[in-house]
Amino acid sequence: MYSNELDRWNQRYSSSEYFFGQQPNEFLRSQSYRLRPGQKVLAIADGEGRNGVWLASLGLDVLSIDISPIALEKAQRLAASQGVTITTEVADLATWDWAVERFDCVVAIFIQFAGSDLRTHIFEQIQASLKTGGLLLLQGYTPKQLEFKTGGPPYIENMYTAQLLQESFHNMEILHLVEHDAILSEGVGHNGMSALVDLVCRK
After folding, report:
1. Which CDD domains does the record associate with it (predicted)?
2. What is the CA radius of gyration of the chain?
3. Could you say which DSSP state residue 25 is in?
4. Is residue 1's pLDDT more than 80?
5. pLDDT recorded at residue 187
């Protein structure tokens, strides 16, 4: 499975163009007021680095992880072009060592390649890896996204609902949780009307 996933993502990121664009996710941008320079941030499945590079521009200490080394090479080029520094690490999230209470913030933007079992593992590790008081900033697709077909996997079991996220992170303080529709313009990967759910919670 790892090699198939690796091949799939490497192929997706092999173009000189940035598949999801070079600008940060709008939901993430809207949460910038919650972040402070010097905080250590984990950007999960950060791909070509659009979110991690933007976070670094705010003065954050960013670790950007992804399964694709090709994507992370592009992330480093993007960081250099913006005059910022990020740390990148190739990671299979099923086996990666998350460590305990390591991060002030975890950013999880459209990490819905994960089916239910892997998702449960990732969500548990996110909580463990956050320091007390640390934040999770997450955006994903709801099942309605299968009607829009403007991004994300075609599997309903990979989608999120507000109820699923509330149950998954019930041990954390939920600061913001809402389902909504909005137009995304994130490269060719996410483009058009989209069914979204946003979550901000604190450990």
Report:
1. AdoMet_MTases (cd02440)
2. 16
3. P
4. no
5. 82
Closest by CA position to 106, among listed 132, 135, 79: 135
CA angle 164-6-73, nearest 5°?
A: 105
Tens of pLDDT, residue by residue over 103-127, are: 999 999 999 999 999 999 999 999 9
Range of the domain at 138: 2-202
Residue with tokens 């019930």: 170
What is the rounded CA–CA span in Å between residue 178 and residue 193? 16
- Give me the number of domains the chain comprises: 1
Proportion of the chain above pLDDT 90, given as a percent: 86
Of residues 73, 14, 30, the one with CA closest to residue 49:
73
Taking a C-beta distance cutoff of 8 angstroms, is the pair 43, 68 a contact? no
Residue count (the chain): 203
Ranges of beta strands (E only) in 110-172 are 130-141
Query: Residue 3 has what pLDDT?
Result: 53
32-47 pLDDT tens trace: 999 999 999 999 999 9
Domain of 7: which CATH number? 3.40.50.150
